[in-house]
Amino acid sequence: MSAPKYPGFDTLALHAGQSPDPATGSRAVPIYATTSYVFRSSEHAASLFNMERAGHVYSRISNPTVAVLEERVAALEGGVGAIATASGQAALHLAIATLLDAGQHVVASGSLYGGSHNLLGYTLKRFGIDTTFVSPRDLDAWHAALRPNTRLVFGETLGNPGLDVLDIPAVAQIAHAARVPLLVDSTFTTPYLMQPFTLGADLLYHSATKFLGGHGTVIGGVLVDSGRFDWEASGKFPQLTAPYAGFHGMDFEEESGTRAFLLRARREGLRDFGACMAAMTAFQILQGIETLHLRMPRHVENTRKVVAFLAAHPMVDRVMYPELAEHPDHALAGRLLPRGAGAVFSFDLKSGREGGKRFIESLHVFSHLANVGDAKSLVIHPASTTHYRMSDDDLKLAGIGAGTVRLSIGLEDAGDLIGDLERGLKAAR
Amino acid sequence: MNLVVDGKRVFAYTAAHALDPAKPSVVFLHGAGLDHSWFALQSRYFGYHGRNVLALDLPGHGRSEGPPLASIEGLAEWVMRVLDGAGIAKASLVGHSMGSLAALECAARHPQRVERIALIGTAFPMKVGDAFLEAARKNEHTAFDMETIWGHAPQVPLGGNPYPGMWMYGDTLARLERLAPGVLHAGLKACNDYAAGLESAAKVKSPALFILGQRDQMTPPRAAKALVQAIAGARTVSVAAAGHSLMAEAPDAVLDVLIEFLA
User: B209, B185 in Cβ contact below 8 A?
Assistant: First the structure.
């Protein structure tokens, strides 16, 4: 008897989460543009509310179109399930709000998307949740930053914008020794380039706005749980392992085992904070995911060509891409990212801030805007835009200089992209 | 609630209700490698509708201490000791897969304590392939893969989960990966070695219900036929499109049948 096989990634990207619509036979995922769902009877209504039956009640909590996206991303990541949110930031907030109370603490990489840094470094402080930022490459610093009240360890699979590769197996080990989970932002890598749960991460999220949607058309996030972290054994998460008055005395772990985190995140987090995803948004992100396995190799192929061009250019001081031998995480990237180190990277111009401005304003194919992961190529100057609220010290920790330019490489002809960059570099002199 | 049976901690999900001797009781018995929450929706329903519910974590599974028990007969006697510990004289038993064989054996051995039995995803003999058993004996991940893939209908990885946002394969795998070494093998071997099925079925006097998934790859409906015929008056409900994990794949269909049967 031979071992059975799981469906391949490409098949899951197209099918997971959806069977043809039982009502109409629709092959494409129907867009259920409805707020609510008619109960079959009073008894049925009561049993849905009390979680005695599976189903949808109100689209802030769950929606059939959104559920397809959630199940599909969970399948691609190898998780127990997922929750789609209004944005990637909403996914990060939902994870933290589900697990942490005031007075508790996060250890996070200092090399984060500016919005995430802001949430952790400033906004959550107002609510009594503190964060210690550490250099993602300094494993001793991760360990030293842990406190008795630490409840979460957090980093990006590829740090923004210096592309620090998070040593997930090592950082997960540090987190697990402290009986806390590791959450990673997997936006830059997507499940096509890396599946963090296989490396030891416990929770992950995507800004689905980026490569999952892939076309720069919608804002959305997806939070995924591996189901591997044992909340009961940890003993540090009464939020999941003790009766909760806010949900009829439910002990989420006792109720649902591996589904405890997602159960509370959905039943409390979506119910009370309300940062849910609209059905139309889910449909558009699903359209993107259906070609993720085709787009990502091309994103990486184009990136490698552009990186090679810039690395050899006299106007460029350094290129920060982990596939280059001089990148500090070159060996780690070879181990954790064998399919490629993504399509977003940064480089430093020799001509500094003013040269950077002239460079960006001379580009025609690259679009100057605040996003990454679009099918179209994008460019931005992080120190004055995405990371402008960070102090000089924090900018240094994140590997951002005055002349650092971030590119997101799209699916255009690579020769056209290089020609555009040549024009910009000429202007930057 | 936690009980102590044979000096070991036993966890029983009671749907957040204290046991009431005046109420009828339902005991849920899960399959090899799984836990009480495999019956999450169904057990919660009965806990909130006038029943004492004991959805057990079998020894070595979920929150119950090990070691796992080595035989179906041993499991059946253990269930009786759990009922003793909980102060329950008589109960209906709902068992899935390995748990269904334990429920059958309980009904045959202790007819005075078993009101009704519902056997879900069952078969006799419940033979387990050599490769599966061997992989489980060696604690190889392949055993978890086999349980996950064969434990669901073929369309499950491509179909929509009734639980919004959940990935059924991932959920099963996550449970299996939490098991202590040897637990899955003990359960599979107990099913494989169980020989008393027909003899015990002939002794069953309580009403019996079979709930079978038409697309069950582990215990296909034809494999339950002998058992169905051996229990006088047994009723069978076949659930279209469901595989071996009926409670997760078709939770409402299973609940509706149980509501009617246990009424």
Answer: no
Shortest alpha-carbon distance between residue A142 and chain B (Å)? 26
Q: A378: which strand partners?
A: A367, A408
Place of tokens 């944005």: A87
pTM for this one? 0.96
Domain containing residue A354: 293-428
Query: Is residue A89's pLDDT more than 90?
Result: yes
- CATH number of the domain enclosing A189: 3.40.640.10
pLDDT value, residue A357:
84
- Pairwise CB contact (< 8 Å): A78 & B40: no
The domain boundary, picked from A236, A262, A288, lies at A288
Considering the domain architecture, whether residues A67 and A201 belong to the same structural domain is answered as yes
CA–CA min distance A25, chain B (Å): 13
The CA-atom distances, in angstroms, between A372 and each of A44, A63, A161, A407 are: 45, 28, 11, 8
d(CA A346, CA A400): 9
Domains in chain B (CATH in brackets) are 2-262 (3.40.50.1820)
Flag if A81 and B163 touch (Cβ within 8 Å). Answer: yes
Cβ neighbour number for residue B14 with a 10 Å cutoff: 18
Q: Are the beta carbons of B171 and A259 separated by less than 8 Å? A: yes
What is the CATH number for A318?
3.90.1150.10
Residues A311 and A403 in one domain: yes
> Total domain count for chain A?
2
**For the segment A115-144, what is each residue's pLDDT rounded down to a tens digit?**
999 999 999 999 999 999 999 999 999 999
- Cα A86 to the center of its chain, rounded Å: 13
Q: Which pLDDT belongs to residue A227? A: 97
